[in-house]
Amino acid sequence: MLxxxxxxxxxxxxxxxxxxxxxxxxxxxETGAGKSILLDALGLxxxxxxxxxxxxxxxxxxxxxxxxxxxxxxxxxxxxAAQDLPADEGMAILRRVVEAGGRSRAWINGVPVTQAQLRxxxxxxxxxxxxxxxxxxxxxxxxxALIDAHAGAGALASEVAExxxxxxxxxxxxxxxxxxxxASERERELLAWQVDELRNLAFDAGEWSEINQEHARxxxxxxxxxxxxxxxxxxxxxxxxxxxxxxxxxxxxxxxxDIDPGLGDVRELLSGxxxxxxxxxxxxxxxxxxxxxxxxxxxxxxxxIGAVTDLARKYRVDPEGLPALFDDWxxxxxxxxxxxxxxxxxxxxxxxxxxxxxxASRLSAARRPAAERLSxxxxxxxxxxxxAGGQFAVALEPCAPSVHGVETVEFRVAANPSxxxxxxxxxxxxxxxxxxxxxxxxxxxxxxxxxxxIFDEVDVGxxxxxxxxxxxxxxxxxxxxxxxxxxxxxxxxxxxDWQWNIAKSNRGNEVVSAxxxxxxxxxxxxxxxxxxxxxxxxTTRRHAAEMLxxxxxx
Length: 554
Known about the structure:
By secondary structure, the protein is of the alpha/beta class.
């Protein structure tokens, strides 16, 4: 669950450090006070998109950090280990910094990460339902994604898509082979000749560096030998040899240092120089012994270099690019060879289709019970949400094989018993869509493993007794996990286990947002404000207290 949220210089928030509690919490306040801004800040910490507008006016950067308990199922712990990220004392701290120029940086438990990693970790920790989330339910792709998530079939759906694309690629290859066999034969012969030419060269990029180094050494062998001989003569031969002179001077100064310790540093320097000169002399002798003129090897290397450069020039690439060219042409040749045999391609196509159909059948089997369960649960919730006799159904209609499987997913609804089920996008009014969308979000959230659920004004478009029912739904959900809800409805706020008030105020020339945790008296005043507006009467306060009393007794 979310333990702490720290915000610095985000929009109209200057500095906030919030400690969160378990259960169902309501965030209330006047419109524009900054309630949704808190959730926007949390969304950034969870890996949401960032821009320079997130930074408070006149500041260099916005800084948001969210501290969560690690979920008990261990899924996130395993993910952190796989990413080589620490799990600090059972906590996950997600931090995001957005600079005024728009650049952003991210950390998990103090280690820099990418935005994608931050978002992936955030998916394990919290799920934010925006105030317009129900509108997405009108789209077919959103309906399909929701039922797949409800069925726990996300990975299966991805496999179906992958199998379908592989099958369709083979379909296209077979059709091309059947339509253009003559042209493919000419292209295949040319490419095969080019691949053989590169294969016979047997060249790799590492060899190019080695043979150029060897060529430089052999081409300058005479000069290297002459230089080595001269250096050996200077270092180690004759009375004036540098190595002998250094040893002699080192012995002399060593004796002097025994008398005057002030020469200790000089003794050490000369001793080291004498040792290094001896080592250089021995290494140079070994090098000279190996060095030899080899005209035959030099000619052989020059022929090799010529063959490589000629072929690189012919195919208009650098010598280092020949291996990559060989790999690319080999792949193309394999495809052309495959395309030259329509019968073999047809066999592969049939195998790919069978593999697709097998996985698609498993996806269908997973979708059916999830669709039935969601249809039943949302229909039951509609009765409580002032839609008595209404019915909701997830229709799975067979269709031609596609990247999404062998059935379409469509949400259908009947607002009252006298109406037939029709597509949600065509029949639901704004208020009905709000209630149905809320029911779907609550029902699907119950099956989610995400420990923190956040609802941002998802109760827009409802009121009265329906609002109280929504509040009780969220309160019940809060017994199983942490639930946060931004709301303008007193009936919803009264059902919360705890409540915060968000307000904005003028501070000098700045507008800032502040958060105040409310105890019983504060909650009565806030809910009375939500009930009565500007003029709060004793009657309104008694009504607010009654609402909280009902909640406390429930």
